[in-house]
Amino acid sequence: MSATTVPSVTTVPAATTALTPPSPTTLIPAPPHHPRPHGGDDAWTELVEAVRESGQYTTRSEAERVTRIVLSALGGHVIGDERVDLARALPEEAARVVAGQIPVTRRLTAAEFVESVAARIEGATPATARWDVSSVLSVLPRLVGDDLVTRILTQLPAGYALLFGRADLSPAP
Hints:
Layout: H1 40-55, H2 60-75, H3 80-89, H4 92-99, H5 110-120, H6 126-137, H7 140-144, H8 146-155, H9 160-163
Helix pairs in contact: 1-2, 1-6, 2-4, 2-5, 2-6, 3-4, 5-6
């Protein structure tokens, strides 16, 4: 048997040129950016100032406290797409207050809702709590739009429209 010589083979990486397509890579798309129409600290300040004017509160801190309490109470009662849309339409700070609430297991009537807010505000009576609730909720239509408020009201028991500054045209139960 004769010995056969096998030439050695060296592999050289191919040079890439502009004509060579790039190797496939996995791209993870960035989440869509939905700018908040009312985002940022300025929008929160504007919301609180609107509540302060609506409720005729003497200090910004009082209006801010009432705004947080009422929005947190509302946040438990608004569910589904309306809750998501409400959070998107509100200033970031207000959106966190609304979205941070656990949905309630039993819908409160408008009067019960006001009473629940009264229980959260030291020294409040049902009359002062109704004023506080209306002072906050009545500024929402200008901020989030009438269509969204209408959708929210369809989720809530009769009587809430008045709290949002609207006539309640639903038939009495």
